[in-house]
């Protein structure tokens, strides 16, 4: 298991390295600003694909506490994210990888250093509904309306 939260992504993938964390939201500064509470179990695994391109496999499981945008009461959101992210070393490579219909994952430019905490934060924030709400019929009316 890789210890550092900031890595050289090409090396991380070539070494088939793994990194993981299970923590409350205090370990994720941007998520701690977005949500009242929560706990996440995260794992990032590096590999190279059939084209020798670096790929990060990201898994996030857990729950975060937010506000329902319909009833304004607490809403616990269960998270189950699993995604492959291919890293492109140039603009031409980025275009070529984005056109690869067989890949089925996301493609991003490869930075010199990658914060795995920020990667997890990005994936959680991108994976959320724009306006989180309870399922229809599950909202409780505010106390002053009952």
Percent helix range: 10-25%
Shape: elongated
- Poorly predicted runs: none
Arrangement of strands in the largest sheet: 2-3-4-5-6
Q: Kindly report how far apart the N and C termini lie.
A: 52 Å
H and E order: EHEHEEEHEEH
Number of domains: 1
Give the strand tally: 7
Rg over CA atoms: 18 Å
Approximate strand percentage: 35-45%
* Main sheet overview: 5 strands, mixed
Question: What is the arithmetic mean of pLDDT?
Answer: 89
Structural class, from helix and strand content?
alpha+beta
Count of helix runs = 4
How is the topology of this model organized?
Elements: E1 6-7, H1 9-14, E2 18-24, H2 29-34, E3 37-48, E4 54-67, E5 74-88, H3 91-98, E6 106-109, E7 114-115, H4 116-127
Parallel strand pairs: 5-6
Antiparallel strand pairs: 1-7, 2-3, 3-4, 4-5
List the main descriptive attributes of the protein structure presented here.
single chain, 146 residues, alpha+beta, 4 helices, 7 strands, elongated
């Amino acid at each position: 298991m890789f210890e550092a939260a900031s890595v050289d992504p090409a090396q991380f993938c070539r070494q088939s390295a793994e990194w993981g964390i299970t923590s409350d939201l205090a370990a994720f500064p941007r998520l701690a600003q977005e949500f009242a509470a929560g706990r996440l179990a995260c794992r990032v695994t590096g590999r190279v694909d059939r084209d020798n391109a670096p790929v990060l496999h990201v898994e996030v499981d857990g729950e975060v506490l937010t506000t329902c945008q319909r009833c304004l009461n607490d809403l616990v959101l269960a998270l189950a994210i699993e995604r492959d992210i291919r890293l492109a070393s140039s603009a031409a490579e980025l275009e070529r990888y984005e056109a690869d219909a067989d890949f089925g994952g996301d493609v991003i430019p490869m930075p010199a250093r990658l914060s795995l905490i920020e990667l997890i934060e990005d994936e959680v924030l991108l994976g959320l509904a724009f306006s989180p709400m309870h399922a229809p019929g599950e909202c409780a009316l505010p106390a002053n309306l009952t």
